[in-house]
Amino acid sequence: MTKESKQVCNSSEQASQNYHPALRCWHWANAILIMGSLLIVLVNFTLLKPENNTAYVQAQLTSLSAKYTVHDATAFARFFSDKLWVVHAYIGFGIAALMVFRIILEFFLPAQQRLVYKLKNYLTAAGVNNKLVKITYAIFYLLVAIMAVTGLSVAYQNELPFLKGNVAAVRAVLDIHYYTMYPITAFIAAHLAGVILAERKDSPGIVSGMINGGKRSSD
Questions:
Q1: What is the largest CA-CA distance in the chain?
Q2: Is residue 101 domain-resident?
Q3: Which domain holds residue 137?
Q4: What is the pLDDT of residues 161-209, one digit of tens each?
């Protein structure tokens, strides 16, 4: 990277650390909702997975001398996981709303804090590592958008002509929704690791900047 390129990137990075209040609120709200959504998926596919709990429910009902069918036991086993899937859906609505908010916010942010500006700046002035970081961020936004759209599509499948009554299509959309979770989870892990390393090395103040807006230079 040339000296001029470094100066451009450093000045842009310093300016962008004076994060706009709306951007900070969006960041933390988005982080909380996405982490909550992933946590629900983890719990429902482990602790509350119906296939793992049906036998336990049957054993408990048998010990109580209760009359039941396998269908009844399965319904009991699914009760709490179904409740959590409802919460998952509401969180999805929140994530979708935040995506719309972020798109609108892009038009009102200072130029140096806009995603388009950052991508253009880093792609033209930064080295390979910074380019990869910014491209990864762009991919993350795309993945969240895909997850939001597929989730909304499943939630409103009866209102969508291409999904209504089409089990195969709904299954395909669900698969896309499900498998999108993996790269998003990988990004979150990499993002957290990167922030920790940056805080300890060459970019201290990232976390505090996203909490209180960072230091603003005096005019």
A1: 79
A2: yes
A3: 17-212
A4: 999 999 999 999 999 999 999 999 999 999 898 888 888 877 777 777 7
Domains identified in the chain, total number: 1
Nearest of 103, 127, 126, 133 to residue 116 by alpha carbon? 103
**Residue 152 maps to a domain:** yes
How far the first Cα of the chain sits from its last, in Å, is 30
Compute the CA torsion angle 83, 84, 87, 92 (nearest 10 deg).
-130
Q: Decide: pTM greater than 0.90.
A: no
One-character DSSP codes across 144-203: HHHHHHHHHHHHTGGG-TTTTT-HHHHHHHHHHHHHHHHHHHHHHHHHHHHHHHHHHTT-
- Of 120, 110, 96, 111, whose CA–CA distance to 37 is shortest? 96
SS3 state of residue 46:
coil
Do the domain assignments include residue 201? yes
